[in-house]
Design brief:
Layout lengths: L7 H11 L8 H14 L3 E5 L2 H11 L7 E4 L6 H8 L3 E4 L11 H11 L3 H5 L13 E7 L8 H11 L2 E5 L7 E2 L2 E2 L6 E5 L12 E5 L2 H11 L23 H12 L1 H19 L14 E3 L5 E4 L6 H10 L15 H7 L7 H9 E4 L7 H16 L9
Parallel strand pairs: 2-3, 2-4, 4-5, 5-8
Antiparallel strand pairs: 1-9, 6-7, 6-10, 8-9, 11-12
Helix pairs in contact: 1-9, 2-9, 3-4, 3-8, 5-7, 10-14
The protein binds pyridoxal-5'-phosphate (PLP).
Length: 394
């Protein structure tokens, strides 16, 4: 589905770390974090060992506690909801906009107002079960899906008026811009993820950016087994985690960040090749760039089929041709553990479910060549023309 984009510069940087005896907590993490402060213009950057770990630390730093309500999206990778469940908070889902797949801003504003209104009005946003709480709305966790930032200006206004925090999951939007401002810098906390399919990689890893000095010091302690500034190795002010990023990963990440623009340009080129070919096929809807996105950052290449065409049969037909393709995303509220816990049903978030049924991620990376894009597009077009996907219908 994707390939990392690694050059000799990355190999050399990792090899240099391996010649030292500092494989963790050395200079590389410092340099990596300095590079992210410079890149983002934010005062604090904290390297962590996954995007999920980064989001979890933000949840702790935002003061989210058991029973607290957090507004978020069901159309995302599961990690953005799971980090709330780790703290026994209650995710309150708001459906998404059909074009971008990002949280629906009008609905989100309604939800915030309702959650601050009386008990009865509040409950209409609650899941059927598992949300027995009278705790308040603490935060909004918004996700910039597919490399496009959420429309954050209205969210910032309402969050400020209501005194709630904003966590921006920018794990899919590194380098994207919203009205000229960098994705990840639009809330109180931003997180980027560096799994090998992302715009840049550290193998496993992530980074948190924030301007909040106290929160940064707290998250730094939690990342390092709860050791606060001044604690010795066996003193632990807080219940912490081992969420540290090792030196090899940090060295890799620093070189990758320096190459980000180059890799993003290559991804944009691959997306343009796909667009040229697929826009000619009337059945296929290609990714739409919102007018608030002043700079997209291509993460995945997702197309949509019409509701009457069986997407899963197309996946099987493509697999027969040796082409991997994946539904993206599967709605979070319909995952087995979410149904068990909150009693969600089909139909609860119709736009999310519709995108989940019709969307398909095609092979995509910055190292993909034009012939490869040609090959994928020819096969898709053949499968549709000859209605070969009908063979795979059950
Ligand atoms: C990739 C991703 C993450 C983080 O994933 P990790 O594998 O933990 O680095 C979080 N949220 C979204 C939306 C993602 O796509």
């Amino acid at each position: 589905m994707s390939s990392p984009d690694i050059t000799n510069a990355e190999r050399k940087a990792i090899a240099a770390v391996l010649k030292t005896s500092d494989l963790s907590m050395g200079d590389e993490i410092e340099k990596f974090e300095a590079a992210f402060r410079e890149f983002s213009g934010m005062r604090h950057a904290l390297g962590v060992n996954s995007g999920t770990a980064g989001l979890h630390l933000c949840v702790r730093a935002a003061g989210i506690e058991p029973g607290d309500l957090v507004l978020t999206t069901p159309f995302s990778f599961v990690a953005s909801t799971n980090v709330l469940l780790y703290e026994s908070a209650i995710p309150i889902f708001v459906d998404v906009e059909p074009e971008s797949g990002n949280i629906n801003i009008d609905d989100l504003i309604f939800a915030v107002d309702d959650l601050f209104a009386g008990e009865k009005i509040k409950k209409k946003w609650f899941p059927r079960m598992g949300a027995d709480t009278d705790k308040p709305l603490k935060a909004i966790l918004a996700v910039d899906v597919f490399g496009q930032p959420v429309d954050f200006d209205p969210i910032r206004i309402i969050a400020r008026d209501r005194g709630i925090r904003i966590i921006e999951d920018s794990c899919e939007a590194l380098g994207a811009e919203y009205k000229g401002r960098l994705a990840g810098t639009l809330g109180d906390f931003g997180v980027y993820g560096f799994y090998p399919n992302k715009q840049m990689t550290t193998g496993e890893g992530g980074v948190i950016i924030t301007n909040d000095q106290d929160a940064a010091a707290f998250m730094k302690a939690l990342r390092n087994q709860g050791r606060f500034q001044g604690d010795t190795w066996l003193q632990h002010t807080y219940l912490g985690y081992n969420y540290r990023l090792d030196e090899m990963s940090a060295a890799l990440g620093r070189i990758q960040l320096a190459r980000l623009q180059e890799m993003q340009n290559k991804r944009a080129q691959v997306a343009a090749w796909y667009n040229q070919r697929l826009e000619k096929i009337s059945e296929i809807e290609t990714q739409n760039i919102q007018n608030t996105t002043s700079k997209p950052s291509w993460f995945v290449y997702v197309i949509k089929f019409p509701p009457d065409m069986n997407r899963d049969a197309i996946v099987k037909a493509l697999a027969e041709e040796g082409i991997p393709a994946r539904p993206y995303f599967a709605p979070i509220h319909l995952q087995p553990y979410m149904i068990n816990k909150f009693g969600y049903q089909q139909g609860d978030y119709p736009v999310t479910e519709d995108l989940g049924r019709r969307g398909l991620a095609l092979p995509f990376s910055s190292v993909m060549r034009e012939e490869q894009v040609d090959f994928v597009c020819e096969k898709i077009s053949g499968i549709i023309e000859e209605k070969r996907f009908l063979e795979f219908l059950d």
